[in-house]
Request: fold
Amino acid sequence: MSFSQLSHLECGRCGAEHDSERPQNLCVKCGSPLLARYDLDAVRSSVDPAQIAGRAPDLWRYHELLPVRNPESVTTLGEGMTPLLPLARYGERIGLPQLMIKDEGLIPTGSFKARGAAVGVSRAAELGVERLAMPTNGNAGAAWSLYGARAGLAATVVMPLDAPEITRRECVASGTDLHLVDGLISDAGRIVGELVAASDGRVFDASTLKEPYRIEGKKTMGIEIAEQLGWRMPDVILYPTGGGVGLIGIHKAMNELRELGWISGPPPRLVAVQAEGCAPIVRAFEQGESESRYWADSRTVAFGINVPKPIGDFLILRALAETSGTAITVSDAELLAELRDVAAMEGMFVCPEGAAAFAAARKLRASGWIGADERVVVLNTGAGIKYPGTVPVDAPVLPVDGHLV
Reply:
């Protein structure tokens, strides 16, 4: 039995095939992201959900649908199989009694970026890459730095100056070559692009969707949701959308699982959640466009979704269209209020991006777009403790001999 049933890479826009056995970035014909394709007939004949149930509880349990050829090439910190938990009190409060959270804050490095890093780093090392470079809003750079260190790869990371401080420290601790830029992730991306172009092939560009395997790690969120629900899908999945890799990946996973015959019925309606201060996908969706336009002067406290022009915008919008989904904005005030409500009612300190998705769930229920009887999953993409500044502390200070009574 083959560890991976990877067949080839395919351009997500023009369909051109590319060799999966050497490092690849964007399509050589049209410059669009590449997607990994698998021999699904071979997957179907070699494994079924019952066999998967007996495997180790990490994302590598789905190895036939992942791109790493050799199990010895796997770089892992135990990522995957994060809990899918009901939120009964909070869900009742907002009119969604079947609300659930997929909590990625419990994964290694404290964010769902560990999924993409685990698979992307493993495949890069397998293909002979020695140095990675990437721009980041924080968590992706931290994850790729730490997984790169575990795989023995060098890394260069460029992040905005106001990215979360903890993610900088993760990069430094791992020995990464870290640089800060007084600008946005798009400015960091330009700097990384110049470095890669001048490296004569010595540095591999691991930017979001400029390499084809990060999405494969992210798609395991969708496979896990299906497995955790008994190989059924929820009615709605809300996803905080910056680069949108996870949303694209979940959509890809659903298509693969349906073709395998492991799930059936209509797909869950996907929701792209953005901040009012950076909403290129929402604007494109509302105007019926197939691509987004650059969002000038973007800003939001949900730093992970502050992406003014995602490279995979056409794939995000396609996923929304094919699932009868939608795109919605929330304000920073709304998401910060929701962060407090979820913590107070459920004991879960979610990240600001996850809080944005909860605020969106509340708004979509209030508008009637989500029905009261629907099963809804919100993706919390990271641990709230990585963003300590989102909750100011104004507690009284007691003297050492003080009393509360």
Observations:
- The mean pLDDT is 97.
